[in-house]
Amino acid sequence: MATLTLDRPTAATPRPERDARKRRSIIGTIVLYVVLIGAAAVIMLPFFWMVTSSLKTNNQVFTVPIQWFPDPVVWSNYVDIWAKSDMSTWLRNTLILSVAVTFLQVFTGSFAAYGFSKMRFPGRDVLFLAYIGTIAVPWQAYMIPQFILMSKFGLSNTLWAIIALQAFGAFGVFLMKQYYDSIPEELSEAARIDGLSEYSIWRRIVLPLSGPAVATLTLLTFVNTWNDYLGPLIYLRDRDLWTIQIGLKTFVSQYNAEYALIMTGSVLSVLPIAIIFMLGQRYFVQGIATAGLKG
Amino acid sequence: MATTVAPAPTRVPRQRPPGSRLKLRNTFIGWTFILPNFIGFAVLTLVPVVILFYMAFTSWNVFGSADWVGLENFRDLISDRTFHTALLNTGYYALLHIPLTLAVSLGLALLLNTKLRGVAFFRTVAFFPYITSIVAIAVVWNMLFSPESGPVNQFLMALGIDNPPGWTTSTTWAMPAVALVSTWRDMGYYMLLFLAGLQAIPGELYEAARVDGANKIQRFWNVTIPSLRPTTFFVTVMLTIGSFKVFDLILVMTDGGPGTATLVLSQYIYRKGFEEQQFGYASAVAIVLFLICITVTVVQFLVNKRRNR
Questions:
Q1: Is ipTM > 0.90 here?
Q2: Which Pfam families match (chain B) (predicted)?
């Protein structure tokens, strides 16, 4: 049982690692670093260009040759944009939606996954098939009947529409179930023999063991809701309900020659989520690597 | 026990007293776990999918009632030139996007599955595009791809290419441009899935292979790749479905243009449904999209299952 619960950490046992390091030549390491740094630079270049352009005057955005660093640095773009757009409304709406959706998705998703992974009862597999089946069904295929239904409920053109739309996705259930399946059956079985109820097994054993999966799901759901453009595009008509994505898109078509200001708006739409990601990232990536340690 | 799922052949059937009351109780508890999610899921996903199949056989539009027209919508689709274009464009996009993203994300995962100092930073960098908003990156890349003085073409001209492509303004290059941007955006996510798969491979397997005298390349083909199969399966399914339902990036980057060069199925559904209010006809297009995704999934599932035997 110990080998089962510890399968991930043993992937990094010190012995083969030391051997490998001895064998790996210094040149190899340097080459790897050069490749990594090169790849990182290419990946990040669009963001670098976005940030520097947001600090330029409008005429300096497109120059031949490229002007890599703004001169002078035009901070005023970051003041002007609040006056020229409803940025604060958009950000507030997006935040409300992201938090509500993430909470509901993680809670109901991990709860349902327990039923699918650790319990056996008639009809379970048929139900799970329904979930799996709809993962394969693109939302675009049923967005029209969904819209008609949502309008009938009176949810169209309210923030509730987006919450209902995003919070009960099959993806969360699927992701959590995949992870629960990797938790040894013996653990929940032992708890059952000790007299724990199924709810307690979920809350006290399975859920604490699945921190990395919960973190992954939290992050992905939050990011997806924040970045969702289509849901708000279809459901949110009133200007004061708009999210950052709709707002930014409208702003771009309205001020289509104000390149520097458009870049400023883009930076502002990316910045909050970048900060959240940086803060949660250590737990997120490490969490995947150290999964199962607590067992 | 008949319900035991396929991927757990080693699971020993639990020993339970065969009391039917216990079974009933178990069923009840199982349902309470699933219900909170299932109610929302059923009302907002399952029911709409069922309605979709009804709507596709009606002439439902915003004014009229839902008159049953049988296969008329589908007959119209066969001669609808714009629909053909959208279908072909979507296939073309998938053909560009799937292999490219699969290769790049697996490559990144292998590259970053080391204990090198600072590797966490590089993982963050690779994942970063995925967390940024579609609208922001579409706007930025549109500017980068700008034909006359955009950075991409300036770079290409510096490399000696005298006639760099017009990217999103060219009917030939608009789709590759979109596919490039979406690969750049998605690769970090699929890389993380691959990384999780790589790290779940027990170290003992590598050690055993090493004891047997397998070199690095042999270990890759005989340990890494087979152990990654469940991950690769998951990634491929997600990637394929993701490609066929591509929508928002195209909507913001090219809006289907120039002309209909990047018009994809999803956008055609949107146009017919929300802009022209032809709910019935749009649903027929949606069914085509639905069938493509289901077929791909089933085929991939069967192939994977056979390979596992």
A1: no
A2: BPD_transp_1
Q: What is the full DSSP assignment across B177-214?
A: HHHHHHHHHHHHHHHHHHHHHHHTS-HHHHHHHHHTT-
Nearest to B199 among A128, A164, A289 (CB): A289
Q: Which residue of B has its CA nearest to A222?
A: B131
| Torsional sign, CA B44, B192, B138, B281 | negative
Distance from CA of A75 to the nearest CA of B (A): 19
pLDDT of A12 above 50: no
* Domain count across chain B: 1
Pick out chain B residues at pLDDT < 50.
1-12
pLDDT value of position A247: 92
CATH number at residue B222: 1.10.3720.10
CA of A10 vs chain B CAs: smallest distance (Å): 6
B257: left (phi over 0), alpha (psi -120 to 50) or beta: beta
Residue type, B155: F
Question: Is A103 a residue whose pLDDT tops 50?
Answer: yes
Structurally, how many domains does chain A consist of?
1
Euclidean distance between CA atoms B54 and B281, whole angstroms: 11
CATH number of the domain that A97 lies in?
A: 1.10.3720.10
More confident residue, A4 or A91: A91
Bridge partners (DSSP) of residue B68 are B58
| Inter-chain CB proximity A223 and B131 less than 8 Å | yes
Q: Which two tokens stand for residue B69?
A: 């027209």
Nearest to B238 by CA among B304, B307, B293: B293
Q: How confident is the model at residue A1 (pLDDT cuts 50, 70, 90)?
A: very low
Q: Is B16 exposed, middle or buried (0-12, 13-18, 19+ CB in 10 A)?
A: exposed
Task: Tell the residue number behind the tokens 């691959």, with chain if given.
Answer: B194
Do residues A137 and B15 make contact, with C-beta atoms less than 8 angstroms apart?
no
Q: Is the pTM of the predicted complex or chain greater than 0.90? A: no
